[in-house]
Amino acid sequence: MLIHSKATEPTGAAHDRVYRALRARIMHGEIHPGQALTLRGIGKEFGVSMTPAREAGRRLVAEGALFLSSSGRVSTPELSNERIEELAALRALLEPELAARALPRAHMALIERLEDINNRVSGMIARQDASGYIRLNLEFHRTLYLRAQAPAMLAMAETIWLQLGPTMSKLYGRLRRTEPPRNHKLILAALKAGDEASLKLAVRSDATQGLRMLKV
Amino acid sequence: MLIHSKATEPTGAAHDRVYRALRARIMHGEIHPGQALTLRGIGKEFGVSMTPAREAGRRLVAEGALFLSSSGRVSTPELSNERIEELAALRALLEPELAARALPRAHMALIERLEDINNRVSGMIARQDASGYIRLNLEFHRTLYLRAQAPAMLAMAETIWLQLGPTMSKLYGRLRRTEPPRNHKLILAALKAGDEASLKLAVRSDATQGLRMLKV
DNA sequence: ATCGCCTGTTTGTGATCACAAACGCTGTAT
DNA sequence: ATACAGCGTTTGTGATCACAAACAGGCGAT
After folding, report:
1. How many angstroms from the chain centroid is the CA of residue A152?
2. Where does the signal peptide begin and end (chains A, B) (predicted)?
């Protein structure tokens, strides 16, 4: 490269910026299932060449966030029913464990932050903002699980969210929500009571609830 | 590239060959923790340029098989005790579930194949072949879990094996084994009896046993 | 002897290019 | 109208290059 326009983006490596931007889009359901991407297209959008675009794509394919066709083309995955159920089962396996590990460290300040996040969900519902709804929903879970001090486990949970991202947007577009999730209130109640058993149950229910209406 | 030597390797894309070769090495514990790799070195070893080497590296970093330093250098990770315990906890969470799902489909032919794999472990122990031991051990588990018909869950389990690979070689070099793992026999007995509860318990024990002697 | 600097080398990053395969559109034959 | 062949275009792949940051080794000052 001959000309560096350093002033445009202050952050680090180009391939990493592209990766994070795409990852956020996918996880928050801003890209529909089956949507095709091209390396040159990604590069042009972020003002970089094909090389960083390719690396970001590879990384996302490795995480299951993108599907790689036999000819090398990448697209967001269209999940089968079996795959969706499997990913929901993984959530039901991992997230109660994360919640249980976070429970002894969940002080009042954390619970208040969770309640704040949960209240902001209503605004997203009112505005029919599916992406915003997903983002706040995940922020609720991540805020809790961060307290588990289990980075590998949290990374695995995030990988699952990532794989479900595009499909989730279709789901939340389908159902007509009028109220914030009931299970989140149960989670908060269990946290306040320090009740591990009902906490794990509430988290498990929250992780598996949405998928039932995904039956195509 | 001007000259193509097509006759050398009949398999597919170069970056994929490099990826699979490195992945196998790491998973089977053939690379010690903390070992540094260079893109040019990888490229030279496989007769390719830096580009496919970089892509293979990125992919392995995304799976947690390689550690990426702040300066972009890659090396096999040196896991902390907390990280090892966390990965073992993940195995203890995922693998009993996989075994339970495989149980109703585990016919006699499968059990015999598992017994065969298990018997071949003895040869590896006699030859002090740590890598061969790990490979057969994983083959035992993968053969069983394949029957679970849960590809996403299996992929997640393999990712964990991958992260533990380099550390495992250090472990198996440390202990002086004389017999094949006792838990594998328990797993086989539970499979024959169709006893899900004791199967899950045996798998859980097998997943967590090795790590206790890893306390640095 | 130890610390700091300085320089030559190694290494990752990103752009560019040549190439082959896949794609998609158009026109033609049935 | 449909199916198929032909062809220009799009797209991923891998090699190569320029560049900057990181590294390592030695030299000199204190």
Report:
1. 16
2. none
Integer CA distances (angstroms), B144 to A204, B121, B150, B165, in order: 26, 16, 11, 20
CA–CA dist B58, B38 (Å, integer): 12
Tens digit of each residue's pLDDT (9 = 90 or more) over A34-72: 999 999 999 999 999 999 999 999 999 999 999 999 999
* Cα dist from A34 to A26, A44, A85, A130, B207, whole Å: 12, 21, 19, 18, 37
- A153 CB near a chain B CB, below 8 Å? yes
Tens-place pLDDT, residues B82-121: 999 999 999 999 999 999 999 999 999 999 999 999 999 8
CA distance A39 to A52: 9
Substitution target in A26, A50, A159 with the highest count of B β-carbons within 10 Å is A159
Q: What angle, 0 to 180 degrees and rounded to 10, lies between the N-to-C axes of helices B39-46 and B14-27? A: 110
Could you give the domains of chain B?
Answer: 14-75 (1.10.10.10), 81-214 (1.20.120.530)
Q: What angle do CA B160, B78, B159 make, to 5 degrees?
A: 15
Residue A144 backbone dihedrals phi, psi, to 5 degrees: -70, -50
Stretches where chain A sits below pLDDT 70 are 1-10, 173-180, 212-216
Shortest alpha-carbon distance between residue B149 and chain A (Å)? 10
Chain B contact set for A64 (CB, 8 A): 152, 155
B136 touches strand C (CB under 7 A): no
pTM for the whole structure = 0.89
The count of C-alpha atoms lying within 13 angstroms of the C-alpha of B6, restricted to the half-sphere facing its C-beta, is 0
Helix, strand, or coil (residue B118): helix
For chain B, say whether A58 makes contact (Cβ under 8 Å). Answer: yes
Cα dihedral: B81, B82, B86, B88 (round 10): 20
Query: What tokens appear for A140 in the block?
Result: 């609720």
DSSP 8-class letter at B28: T
Distances (CA, A) of A42 to A15, A115, B155: 11, 37, 28
Q: What does the pLDDT look like over B26-85, one tens digit per residue?
A: 999 999 999 999 999 999 999 999 999 999 999 999 999 999 999 999 999 999 999 999
**A90 part of contact set with chain B, CB < 8 Å:** yes
Tell which strand D nucleotides have any atom below 7 Å from a protein Cβ: 10-17, 19, 21-23
* Residue–nucleotide distance: B51 CA to D14 C1' (Å): 7
Asked if A18 reaches chain B (Cβ–Cβ under 8 Å), the answer is no
